[in-house]
Amino acid sequence: STQSTWGPLLRGSEGQRTLLQMGDAINEARALGQKFVEKYYSTMARSPKSLHGFYAAEAQLLWVFGDEELTNVTDVQTRLIDLGIESGTISFESFDSIPSPNLGVVIMTAGAISGAVRPMRFVQTFLLTFHPPHTYYVAGDIFRVLNEAPAAVPPPPSPAPAPTSITQAPTPPRSPVTNPVAVEHAQHAEKLHEEQARLHALQQQQQQQQQQQQQQQQQQQQHQQQQHQAQAQAQAPPAPSPPKPAGTPSWASKLFG
Question: Which long-range contacts (C-beta less than 8 Å, at least 24 apart) are formed by 86-91?
Answer without folding.
Answer: 86/45, 86/46, 86/47, 86/48, 87/115, 87/116, 87/117, 88/45, 88/113, 88/114, 88/115, 88/116, 88/117, 88/119, 89/45, 89/113, 89/114, 89/115, 90/41, 90/44, 90/45, 91/41
